[in-house]
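Input set for joint prediction.
Command: fold jointly, output C-alpha cells.
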Amino acid sequence: MQTENPRDYAGIGFAVGFIALGIWAITETREMSDMGATFPRTIGMAMILFAVTFIVFAVMRPPRARVPVERGSTPRRIALVAVTAVWILLLPVAGFYVTSLAAFVLLCFIANYDPLSTRKVATWVAAAFGVVTGFYLLFAKALLVPLPTGAIF
Amino acid sequence: MFGIEHLLAALEPFNLLLAILGVAAGTIIGSLPGLSATMAVAILVPFTFAMAPASALIMLGAIYTGAIYGGAYAAILVNTPGTPSAIATTFDGYPMARRGDGDLAVTLACIASVFGGLVGALFLLTLAPPLATVALKFGPIEYFWLAIFGLTLIAALSEGNTLKGLIGGCLGLLLSTVGVAVVGGDIRYTLGVVEMQGGIEVVSGLIGLYCVPVIIDLVATADPHLKVSGKSRGFRLPEAMAISWRYKFNLIRSSIIGTLVGILPGAGGSVAGLVAYGEARRASTESENFGKGAPEGIQSTESANNATVGGGFIPTLVLGIPGTPPDAVILGALLIQGVRTGPALFQQGGDVVYTFIYGLLLATVLMLPVGLLIGRYAYQSIIRLPKAILVPGVAFLCVIGSYAIRNSMTDVLIMLVLGVIGWVLGRFGFAASPIVLGLILGPIAEQGFVQGRLIGGAKGDVLGEFLGRPISMVIIALSLLSLFYPMLAKRMQLKSKGVGNAD
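C-alpha cells >
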C-alpha cells in the first residue's frame, strides 16, 4: 500500500535555515564596499525569495506519495566521515605518509562486509602501501607537490 | 596556405611519438581528480623546451586534449569529474555506469571527445583569424549573461523540484563569494579565519560535493559499486558508433558550441560542457532521460569540452590572448620557444602553426585507440576492485587531489565539510549539481555584473547596458528559451494530442 507523506517538513526546515543564511549574508554586506556588496546582497535576497516561495508551495501543495529513501548503515557512514576528518586534521601534525597508510587500512575495515581473514587484512595493508607509496612518489617526487611531512613522515 | 608539406611535417615519426605520449600522459593525469588539464600541461612543459617549436606545440596540444578527455573516466565511474570540464559528464555518465553501462559510457565519451577535438582543430585550421575577432566583442556584460545562461541549467538539474534547485544555485553562488572579492577586493564571509581568504577552490568544492556523498553511501551497504554484466563485452565500439551516428546533430551542435565558448578568454571547458549539455537537453526529443543516463548527455559535454582545445587556441595564436587556462601555460612555452603570437603568425610563422594544427588533428585521432585502451583498463580496474579497497582508494584520491591544487590543508577540510553538507542536503532533495553550477559560474557572473553596472552607471543607462547590446540580447533569448522551452514543448505536445483526439 502506498503511504502518504503529509508535508515536506525537512524541506521546510532547510528552507527556514536558508532564509536565516540569506539574512546573515545580507547583514554581512553592510561592512563591505558597494562593489563588493552588490552581488552577495542580490544572491542573499534571491535565496530568501526562493526559500519563502518554497515554504508557501510546500504548505499549500496537496500531500504527495511517499518516496522510498535508501537507508543503509548509519554507523558506517559516521565512521567514514570521522576517520576522514581525523586523517585530515592529523595530516600536517603526523605527516602525509603515516596518516594516509593508517586511514587507508581503517577505511578498508569500515567498507568491508565480508568475513575477515588474515589474508584479506594482509591484502588491504599491501594495497595501502602500494597506493599511498605510488601516489606519494608521483606527487612529492615527480610533480614536486610539497606534501605535509609532520612529526613522523 | 595550409598545404601538404605541413601535414607531412606533422606525420614525422618523432612528432607522432610525441602525440601518442602526450595523449597518454594527458589522459592519465586528467583522470585523477584534482589534477587538471592546466596542471598536466604545466607539469610537462619543461620537457618541450629542448624540442623544435612545432614538435613542442604538438606534444603540449596532445597533453591538453588527452587531459580534457581523461576527466571523463572518474566522472563516469566514480561520479567525480577528473577535471572541471567533465562536470556535466557526471550527470548521465554515472547513472549509465550504475546501471551496468559504464563500458559503453567510456567508449561514447571517447568517440565524442575525438569528434569534438577534430571540429575544434578544423575551426582552428580554417577560420582562426575571423573567429578571433568574435572574442574581442565579448565584454563583461556578455560574460555575465553567459554565466546566467549556464545557470539556467539549474532548472534541468533540479530533479523534480526547481525551487530546491534554485535555492541550491544561490547557495553555490554565495559560496563563490567567500574570500577576497573579484572586484573591489573586499574580504567576505571568512568568519575571521585567515585561511578562508583564498575562498573556496572550485575543484576541491566539486570533489567534495560529488565524490564524498558517493563514498558515504558506498560504505552504507554491501551492494556492489557498479552493476556489472556477467560476461565481458569489450569496448562496445559498434554500439557506441551506432549511438553516436543516431545523435550526430547533437555531436555537431555541441562541438560548435564548445569551439565558440573556447574562443572566449576565461570561459573554458566547464562552461562549454554545461552550455552544450543544456542545449542538448533542450533540443532532444528524449529530454526526460537526461540526468538518468542519457548517452546524448555524455556526448554533448565530452564533444564540447574537447572542442574548446582547438577553440581556445584561436585567440591564443591569433591575438596572443589565452582562450583557456592551459592555453595560458602553452602561450608561455611558445614565448620561451621564441614564437611570437599575433595576427602575423599565420603568415610569417605558417610552418610552425600549420604543422602544429595538423599535429593536433593527428593527436586527436590517436586519442581514439589510446583513450579506448586506457578507458577499458580504468573501467576493468573499478569494477574488479573490492569495495573495501575502492572506498579508501577514492577517499585517498579526494584528499590528495584537493590538497595538490593549492597545497592547502584548508582546501582539504573544505572538501570534506562541503561533501558532508552536500550529502545531507541531497538526502532532502537539494541536489549537488545546482550548488556546483553556482560555485563555478559565480565569479564569472559577479565580475560581469559589477563591471557592467559600473560601465552602465558611468554612461547613465545601466538597464540599457545590460539589455541593449546585440550579443547580450541573443544570449538572453537563449537563456529564456532554455528555461521555458521544456514547459512550452509539453504544452504544445498536449495541444497537438488534444487536436489528434478531437480528430
